[in-house]
Design goal:
The chain is α/β, with parallel strands linked by helices. It is built from 17 helices and 15 strands. It binds adenosine-5'-triphosphate and magnesium ion (MG).
Length: 506
């Protein structure tokens, strides 16, 4: 017969014994930690882990924020973060709030060291967000300790298969969808003030990308516009095709043309069409090739990497030119160097050591394949100055010329700026445009109403006036050139002007 009164006594005795055993063990462990040599401690730790693993029926999976020695933000971590942002906001008690897409909604996610439970097909799991201090690797040992964030997933070992085979896939899939839904597109730039590797977690700084340009608002020939749109859309849907042909999923565009013809505007329109982020790479702020590679690795998928005015960014021009191929460009360069010398700047004083081969590697080297789904866009005003190696197909797959405004282009601008599709003044504008070069930027400026009283007619006549002036100026220039060709006094006057300015400033 059972003695019911005995049970509580036995239980309490048992707890008491267990408590004191635990306390003794912890005391012993504290002594071991303090006095034992490192190897012996490792030995104890190893066997303690094995022992707890034997009795403790739970499995834990960690999702670290960075993979590959802090090289890249882990996609799994980002997916888990997004998944938990929706699923934890109902149950977590401490939440973080961030702005969501279009700055119109707040996105909540669990705060550090917060714990939430989730259920999947009747299986209960626990998620904890945590932080660990990471000791810097030997190469980075002069940098202070950094914190690494991670999520830990805990579940009973009998559900190992369900969790690893179905639940994790479900988390990543949903997380990615949520990320796309909440994503605010970003405009990144590499800030020149930081040294690599910096205390910051990433080499890019960003703001929300909010440029309103679209292909609809761009002034260019309709067929050319359609061709570019189709090219971009085909690229974005060709994941399997690129895999089949064994090519990294990326495409290079070279946009060239005079200033104010819409190169930068087109990049914004591309980003808006494809819903991509933009990485505006300031090449002159990059110290060396390794830094360039690091920047590349940190870019994410679905993005456009932009290098504007590539001819000005680096001395990439003429490196492979033969000496015999001297052109008038070389003459201009010589003049520029002379001016720089007189202004007290040393020749080639640029602090950037990025080389042409470093840049070529950036575009299509082995590292360029990481990330996938990316456009690389170069812009230049002087396409003929670029090294052919840089712009050959495969690197810059599509060359797009943006040129002076055509009548078709003007009609798009007139519709955008004035809501006018037909007007009797169009005929005169068409005639003038056929013989005068005017950039879309200049047309746009003239069509812009300058006061509330400015109507379509006022703006159109201002454009006609601008066109007539440009026409006169062009004719005058031609006449002057005929008269003063190869005038050596021009060079002298430029240099003496610089001399005067340098004297003044000193
Ligand atoms: N093709 C175009 N369609 C519509 N607007 C244009 C176009 N080209 C220029 N613009 C207008 O002119 C302004 C300047 O254009 P943008 O900055 O794109 O020129 P760019 O070719 O990048 O010049 P740069 O070579 O000097 O960088 C833009 O703000 C835009 O409003
Ligand atoms: Mg530009």
């Amino acid at each position: 017969m059972k003695k019911p009164t005995m049970l509580p006594a036995t239980m309490s005795e048992m707890w008491a014994t267990m408590g004191s055993t635990l306390a003794s063990f912890m005391f012993l462990w504290a002594i071991i930690r303090q006095y034992c040599p490192y190897e012996l401690r490792r030995f104890f730790e190893k066997y303690t882990h094995q022992l707890t693993g034997y009795f403790y029926p739970y499995i834990r999976i960690s999702f670290h924020e960075f993979t590959g020695d802090r090289l890249k933000c882990s996609e799994a971590y980002a997916a888990v973060e997004a998944y938990l942002s929706t699923n934890s906001s109902k149950s977590a008690k401490r939440l973080k709030a961030e702005m969501g897409k279009d700055s119109s909604n707040l996105v909540l996610s669990m705060d550090e060291y917060e714990r939430v439970t989730d259920e999947f097909h009747g299986v209960k799991v626990w998620w904890v967000s945590s932080k660990v201090a990471s000791t810097p690797t030997r190469s980075m040992s002069y940098y202070p300790e950094q914190e690494k964030r991670l999520y830990k997933l805990t579940f009973h070992r009998k559900y190992r298969q369900t969790i690893t085979e179905s639940y994790l896939e479900h988390v990543v899939r949903e997380g990615k969808e949520i990320r796309v839904r909440n994503r605010q597109r970003k405009l990144y730039t590499n800030s020149p003030g930081y040294k690599w590797p910096s205390y910051k977690q990433t080499m890019w700084s960003h703001i929300v990308f909010e440029h309103p340009a679209t292909f609809e608002t761009m002034a260019m020939e309709p067929e050319k516009k359609q061709e570019i749109i189709e090219d971009l859309l085909t690229f974005s849907k060709s994941k399997d095709f690129y895999k089949k042909i064994g090519k990294a999923w990326k495409r290079g565009y070279l946009l060239y043309g005079p200033p104010g013809t819409g190169k930068s505007t087109m990049i914004a329109a591309m980003a808006n069409l494809l819903n991509y982020d933009v990485y505006d790479l300031e090449l002159t702020a990059v110290k060396e090739n390794t830094e360039l590679r690091k920047l590349l690795i940190e870019t994410t998928s679905k993005s456009i990497i932009v290098i504007e005015d590539i001819d000005c960014s680096l001395d990439l021009t003429g490196q492979r030119k033969k000496k015999a191929e001297k052109s008038s460009d070389d003459e201009i360069e010589r003049l520029n160097k002379e001016i720089a010398k007189r202004e007290g700047k040393e020749e080639g004083a640029s602090s950037s050591k990025v080389t042409l081969s470093g840049l070529l590697n950036f575009i299509d080297g082995l590292w360029s394949a990481c990330g996938g789904e990316r456009l690389v866009v170069f812009t230049t005003n002087y396409v003929e100055k670029l090294d052919p190696a840089l712009i050959r197909r495969g690197r810059m797959d599509k060359h797009i010329e943006l040129s002076y405004c055509s009548f078709e282009g003007f009609k798009v601008l007139a519709k955008n700026y004035l809501d006018v599709e037909m007007h009797p003044m169009f005929e005169a504008i068409k005639r003038l445009m056929e013989k005068t070069k005017i950039t879309p930027a200049d047309v746009a400026e003239n069509l812009m109403p300058k006061s509330p009283r400015d109507d379509a007619e006022k703006c159109l006549s201002s454009l006609i006036q601008a066109l007539e002036e440009a026409n006169e100026e062009a004719e005058k220039k031609i006449n002057d050139e005929d008269l003063g060709e190869n005038d050596p006094t021009i060079e002298d006057s430029v240099l003496s002007q610089v001399d005067k300015e340098t004297e003044k400033s000193s």
